[in-house]
Amino acid sequence: MGISNLGEWKGIWAFAEQEEGCLAEVSLELLSVAQFLAKKRMAEVSVILLGYGVESLAEQLLAWGADRVFLAEHPTLEKYSTLPYARVTSNLITEIKPEFFLLPATSLGSDLAARVAARVNTGLSAHCTHLDINDKGELRQVVPAFGGKVMATILCPKHRPQMATVRPGVFRKGEPQKKRGMIERVPVEIRPEDLKQKVLEVHRGKGPARAIEEADVVVAGGAGIGNKDDWKWVERLAEVLNGAVGGTRPPLDEGWISEDQMIGQSGKTIRPKLYIGIGISGVIQHVVGIQDAQVIIAINHEPRAAIFQSADLGVIGDFRKIVPLVVDELEKSASSARVDRAILQP
Q1: Strands, DSSP E only, in 67-123?
Q2: Tell me, what DSSP letter sits at residue 268?
Q3: Hey, which CATH number is domain 6-195, 3.30.470.20, 3.40.50.620, 3.10.580.10, 1.20.120.1730?
Q4: Of 1, 52, 76, 93, most Cβ neighbours within 10 A?
Q5: Hey, how many other C-beta atoms are within 10 angstroms of the C-beta on 130?
Q6: b or e along 159-184 (b: 16 or more beta carbons within 10 Å of the residue's beta carbon)?
Q7: Helices 82-96 and 107-120: crossing angle, nearest 10°?
Q8: Per-residue pLDDT of the chain (346 residues; tens, 9 = 90+)
Q9: Domain coordinates of the chain in residue numbers?
Q10: Does the 217-344 domain belong in CATH 3.40.190.10?
C-alpha cells in the first residue's frame, strides 16, 4: 500500500558512514548531493550519525554544510551491526518522516538500506549513478542495468521516504561552509532481539595499495592484457608513477584486481590528473568512469579501438613493447634525480 499523506514527509536525509571515529569519504559526497537536491526542494539537509564517542564527527558534518545532525550514541553502536543500526534508523524515519533518504552503496550502507527499506515499507534503488528531481517532486534515481548496457530511471511515487544508495566517487564532495547547523541527540532504544548478532572480531582483507578514487595517477588494464604474467606491466607502470592500479570487468573476473579497483558504471568513478588505459577497448560502461580525468592516455594495438575517441593521447602498438620502455625511462629518470639530489646536499 502507498502512503496517502505524502505531504507530511519533508527534508533530505543522508546517512554518515564512519568506522573507528573516521568519516568515510562517501559521507561527504552524500552530503553534497543532498544539498543539491535540497535546493530544488527548498528543504533542510539532515544527516544521521550512529556510533559511540563520535560527537566530533557531528561537528565535522555541520562544518561541511549539514543543517542538522541526528546523533545516536550508544556502546552497542560503536561497531556496525545490522539489527541495532536498523532499529535506530527506522524508528527515526517513522517519527520524523524525511522525504528522501540517501545511503552509501558500500557493504555497510547496502546492508543497512535494504533492512531499513523493508521496515518502513518503502522502495530502494541501489547503486545509483545520478540523482535529480522531476517536476512532480519525485526523486529520479538512475541506475545501470543489464551489466551497464541500460541506464534505468526509477521513481517511487507512492511510498516514503524515497530511498537510494549512491556509489562512492560518483559525486564530488562540496566545500566546508560557514553556516551553522545544530546537533540533535537521538534516544537509543536497543531491544534484546537486536542483540542476536555480536561482532567478535574484525578481520581486514588486503586491499589495493592506493584507493583509485583518491589517486592523482591511475594506470588501468583491460581484456587486452591477455594473461596474468603480462599484468605485471600495469602494476610496474603504476608503481614508477606513484599511482594506483585499476581495471575493467575482465581483469576482475580473472582475479587480477579486486572490486575496489574496477572502474566504470559497475565500479568506481575516478577523477585523476592522469589516467593511462592499457589494452582497454573503451566501451561506454568503462568510459563513464574516467570521463572526468584531466588527461587520458590510451595504449592499444587496435587503431579503431573506441578508447581513442576519449583519449587526449593515443599510442597504437603492442603494450608489451611500449610499456617496458616507458618504465625503463621513468626508472632512469628517477635514479638520476636521486643522484642529483645527493650531490647537491651539503
Answers
A1: 68-73, 100-104
A2: B
A3: 3.40.50.620
A4: 93
A5: 14
A6: bbbbbbbbbbbbbebbeeeeeebebe
A7: 50
A8: 456 688 889 999 999 999 888 898 889 999 999 999 999 999 999 999 999 999 999 999 999 989 999 999 999 999 899 999 999 999 999 999 999 999 998 889 999 999 999 999 999 998 888 899 998 889 999 887 655 566 788 899 999 999 999 988 788 888 887 767 899 999 898 888 877 777 777 766 655 556 888 899 999 999 999 999 999 999 999 999 999 999 999 999 999 998 889 998 778 888 899 999 999 999 888 988 898 899 999 999 999 999 999 999 999 999 999 999 999 999 887 765 544 444 445 4
A9: 6-195, 217-344
A10: no
- Which residue's C-alpha cell is 639530489? 341
- Asked if 6-195 and 217-344 have one fold, the answer is yes
pTM over cut 0.85:
no
Separation of alpha carbons 165 and 104, rounded Å: 5
Q: How many residues does the chain have?
A: 346
